[in-house]
């Protein structure tokens, strides 16, 4: 038998020798070679459903579709029903021009086929498309200490940090293969040493920072290292609640996209920081002080990529990563109050809130709240705004967002929540001519 340079159990050796068929042999070999590349000593059992980052049937991914067919033809599927990132298209709630639809049909021409393959491999259900699979309405929420194989960056950092589960930020398809063989290589964030912090983030702001901007600052500074954040509990308190989880969700997503953070610790808040405190710090840790001025510098560093920076926005996306149900209620009330104050009934800008299908369904059960949202002219969708913006016909539009992730990966322009609200109600950006434009 080939020497893979990694400890293997008798069962794993048998699979690599072909005793469970050629497809399982290739799947496990891929996982083992992946682990060897990162210096893994052994494989660990995956004890929760995987979450896949590849949710789209993009034209040109023939190798992926062929591999999926090979696995399906062998009668193999994941041990547990899995979830997957959001769908790319929702024409009912996100209106598109014929030109935009034409490009979408070219981009995601294999969507129907791919979704059928996902179902054959063990997809949880038709609503299992979201980047926030850990929402209670969705149901793929691990427990502290669980061993996962996930790839979606915002879900990985949430699971590691807020829940205290363990997963690396795996490559797409690798997480599926780990789900099939039920094994994941032990390295990085799956190890105690890999979860220790190389940075202290010393928060010295006068008020609770915008979660997206704070996450952005952290990600750009520490890149892929683990930060230990002190001072945030002064604003959030020392107990984990829904508001704190939503804040950390958005902060973590920004740190993962503006850097490559897969785990952070927040003193007196996140589970491992509560248990271990500053013993999580490596001996030679660095310190990064974040005050009001530093956050202002971060905001002013963001480029505006619109063709005409003085354009009025045409679309606003809120919900990247997907919103929680509390956040939908929160935005609904905030926008309603702002409209009432201005004596208006409807928003002046095409405003789209993105959330998991199951979260949307639960919100719709509150008919009064849902009707109020619709009456204001706001749309609810399950799509990934990033996939919408990957369409060059869509990215031509002047799109605004409060998501640093969407800003980072597209031409969407980032605005703070209060400026997003102003634009939604008034149809233009407040004082945009007064801001320094970085083109």
UniProtKB/TrEMBL annotation:
Superkingdom classification of source: Bacteria
GO MF terms, alphabetically ordered: lyase activity
Keywords, in A-Z order: Iron, Lyase
InterPro entries recorded: PMDh-L-like_dom (IPR007506)
Domain Phosphomevalonate dehydratase large subunit-like per the UniProt entry, residue ranges: 6-412
Matches recorded under Pfam families: AcnX
Protein name, per record: Phosphomevalonate dehydratase large subunit-like domain-containing protein
Lineage: Bacteria, Bacillati, Bacillota, Clostridia, Eubacteriales
